[in-house]
Specification:
Elements (H helix, E strand, L loop, with lengths): L16 H15 L5 H17 L8
């Protein structure tokens, strides 16, 4: 099975990882622990935004 991959980069998050994490927690609370199809897509988008907002570790020289 082939999957299409987007060639457009995800936008860099304007919110902190903590802010996005709060939205993720709220989504889970609203859902009662079971996500609908639409909520799963929102969760996926939020997790990607959260990961993009995480601070990048400095590379060791």
């Amino acid at each position: 099975m082939l999957h299409s991959m987007s060639t457009t980069p995800e936008p860099v998050s304007e919110r902190s990882a903590a802010e996005v994490n709060e939205e993720i927690r709220a989504l889970w609370l609203r859902s009662g622990g079971t996500l609908s199809v639409e909520q799963r897509e929102e969760y996926r988008r939020l997790v990607l935004e959260w990961a993009a907002a995480l601070p990048r570790p400095a590379k060791a020289a």
